[in-house]
Amino acid sequence: MASKRMFSKMKRTPKFSTRHRNRCEITGNARGYYRKFRINRILLRELALQGLIPGMRKASW
Fold this sequence. Notes:
Number of strands: 2
Structural class: mainly alpha
Strand order of the largest sheet: 1-2
Distance between the termini: 35 Å
Helix content: 25-40%
Radius of gyration: 14 Å
Mean pLDDT: 86
Number of helices: 2
């Protein structure tokens, strides 16, 4: 989990537009980012298993 200082730093607009990096809003992680949910893949899976994301459930066949 990123600190408050890091979150405030991430929210600032970058000096150059190419430096923008999508980051998870909860953990601050930049890898495995899902635009639709604005969180990373690990957190998405945890929240889906808990039933906190409407319309999403674990696949089984």
